[in-house]
Amino acid sequence: MSRTYKATGINLKSMPLGEADKLVTILTPEFGLIRAVAPGARKQNSKLGGRSGLFVVNELLLAKGRSLDKITQAETLESYPGLSKDLSKLAASQYLAELVLCHALSDQPQEQLYALLNEHLRRLEQLPNASGAQSASSSVLAHLSHGVFHLLALAGVAPQVQICCITQHSLIPDFTDPDWRVGFSVEAGGTVSLTGRDSGIQALPRPVITKGGTVTQTISQDYTDTQTPPPPRLNSKLDATELSVLQHLAEADLPQANRVSASQAGDKSLVDPVHTVWVKVERILRDYAQYHFGRSIRSAALVDALSIPNF
Predict the structure, then answer these.
(1) What DSSP designation does 106 have?
(2) How many structural domains compose the chain?
(3) pTM of the prediction?
(4) In sequence order, what are the residues at sequence separation of 6 or more whose Cβ sits closer than 8 angstroms to the Cβ of residue 251?
(5) Range(s) of the domain holding residue 26
(6) Distance between CA 135 and CA 133 in Å, rounded?
(7) Mean pLDDT of 94-101
(8) Are β-strands 69-78 and 182-185 bridged in parallel, bridged antiparallel, or unpaired?
(9) Structural contact between residues 228 and 199, judged by C-beta atoms closer than 8 angstroms
(10) Is residue 229 domain-resident?
């Protein structure tokens, strides 16, 4: 069996190893996550120095090792230099990379995850320069939120935003009522109708068990007063624009908060500023992702610092 193999991968993380090496975590479509040593990458004239940088895509030749593989050759196919030139874009990219590291698998193909990450990194890099700091921050937050939702969907844990998680009724944003709100519960798995949450009735499947202890079928059961669980804790309340934006995040193209509201709201004065909408949407998705993956997103602190003004 050959001790060497080829792979195409994007660098998601690197750290010093020994006196001059780097330990690089690479996402490949063929083999999933790979942790490999880039020998001598920290030396001044090393050929692997730039090729082991963050978000560089390489065609690799690797040698298998007992615990860690070693990069013997690397040819750069693509890089995202625009990300490192803009701190907000770089922070958002690192945020997405952390989410990928949360659920990417090793020794298994990860074609969809690889393609999805590269697509959203490309979109972030290609964002036009905005005239104002807040406008630029809003654009980055919007693309970040879009990428986060797509990564959650690919992992199979995207929040439910089209229907109430309790009543299973469709949720349609009401732009005519400035006081209209819907809840969002991380524990419940997404959006919650405020009336459904307070009703104290939840339809759940109830197993029918025979004397032998086997489940033969399930039927719907409405909880009685003595069986009713406490209503899910709400992490936030969303207005019509915020919910509408969340409901469009599953689409391939990024929804624009101002366009969504303008096309559906009769009175533009009811619409929150676009920046505030995206800050809130990102925070909701962040809390949801951290809850489901069981770890904090460290890059989020820098995203917060660059969100002007802070929410």
Answers:
(1) B
(2) 2
(3) 0.85
(4) none
(5) 4-79
(6) 5
(7) 98
(8) unpaired
(9) no
(10) no
